[in-house]
Amino acid sequence: MFKYRLLTFIMLCFLISCNQQDEKQSNIKSDAQEFIDNYTQEFLRLYYNSAKAEWESNTHIVEGDTLNAYYTQKANEALADFTGSESIITSTRAFLDKREELDALQVKQLEAILYAAANNPSTAKEIVNKRIKAETVQNEKLFGFDFKIDGKSVSPNEIDRILGEETDIKKRQAAWEASKEVGKTLKEGLAELKDLRNQTVQALGYQDYFNYQVSDYGMTTEEMVQLNKKLISDVWPLYRELHTWARYELAEKYGQEVPDMLPAHWLPNRWGQDWSGLVNVEGIDLDSKLEEKGSEWLVKQAERFYVSLGFEELPQSFYDSSSMYPAPEGADYKKNNHASAWHMDLQKDIRCLMSVVPTAEWYETTHHELGHIYYYVSYTNPDVPPLLRGGANRGFHEAIGSMLGLAAMQKPFLENLELIPSGVETDETQTLLKEALNYVVFIPFSAGVMTHFEQDLYVNNLSKDEYNKAWWQMKKDFQGIVPPTERGEEYADATSKTHINNDAAQYYDYALSYVLLFQVHNHIAKNILKQDPRATNYYGNKEVGKFLNDMLKVGATKDWRELLKETTGEELNAKAMLDYFSPLTKYLKEENKGRIYTLPEKAF
Questions:
Q1: Alpha-carbon Rg of the chain, whole angstroms?
Q2: Which one, out of 104, 258, 514, 544, has a CA that is 20 to 30 A from the CA of 266?
Q3: Is 217 annotated as contributing to ligand binding?
Q4: Does residue 338 carry a catalytic annotation?
């Protein structure tokens, strides 16, 4: 009897304890959710104000007008004051100390709140405000810069045209040098921003700004750098063939001696990150066909592509609010000419900032940028809280945009749109070469030059007196590219790249995105379309649309590694990219017979 009563008592105590524990856990959950909801409401208001101010600063730049800079600075300061407030940090940490009692979605949102706080901690308020002001000034100097050739103002699009078409070496050099003059005005600003960015995140325990940005992937600096080195090593044999081919082809084209390293002004891109302009595929003359269509057609056709996959038409507000085309000739303002997609309020206000002209490059870019837009649309749903409305990782966003840009340029896709004649004979090797000069060439630039320069900048506190020396040493080591003439430290050529200034310590996003691009594209081609990955047509395939939407709609609610494995069956790897370009290696080895290779056999 006693044993029975004792057992009953123990069970009763256990039940009471469980009930108390459940009530306590329930209170923690409800308290955490109330905190998250209140934070989200105020965050969305301030985030939207900041986005609108940034939009004005990027789309309407008037020399001497300081109002945009003032309003942008104030809006960003208000957002920073809120996200980095001490009470927010304290409360978030307190809830995360009891993470085992919270829902997984609550934990993810709280981690996002704390991550945002590290960018603007109130414990370093003076530094944060200085940094916001410095970033605003840097952007205005960058996007308001008056590029000139022989004393005459030119647009970035005109510089790109010259580098893409001109065969006169002197004219090419003048255009290339003009594109780098902006660095003189940005050098001091970058040095100041490097210090301010480091000091900001160090206030919450990060080693440096590079380490802070990398941590968003759940990786250390060393892990990220090693991963990028692995990508370079994987593509290096093919890159070495492309580099050798380009040296000889361009020397013949320009009537020059074959150089050991590629002169930067010989290449069709200001930064040497994309050499695809060196090849024109016969039978595919997109530029003339697109010129007939006009700029507006490019944007609307990109939308029609996504609609054909099963996505909804974009709201009229998207077209009303976006800035799609270059500033009119003679306009009293300038705009940022770098294409970008904006999720202004993390809800319904979606916009694009572009300078579309009817060319093949902008045709691909419109498909890329609308890839971002439809990513926004997909994860703006009740299952994804506003704080988690982002890509699975930052590279995912770029991967989807770039993948759909690639798909839109493949021959069966172009035939479907009647942009090239059906059944037109094309040289498939030249098509593959053109693509490799884009995608493969980009890896040593993104995973090599940009990633290592910014690592050196933020982790090793690279001196401003060595910016150009370090930049050009990395350009030579990773890409085999050298400047036309000696570039002293009065220049800061790295700063001519937008991302160095306003999207700092994140360029490895693009390197990873290219690997993800081919991995996801390979899965779609082989498992859904049952087509050769080099010749696909996504257009009108609702199954492809469903696969994409299922991947996009979860936003950042899932771990990116888990999502990738779940959707493609594989972890991140470059195999699909290497397989895609494998037929090109044999061709290039034949072309390069008897030629001297000047890059080492191994990257490292």
A1: 26
A2: 514
A3: yes
A4: no
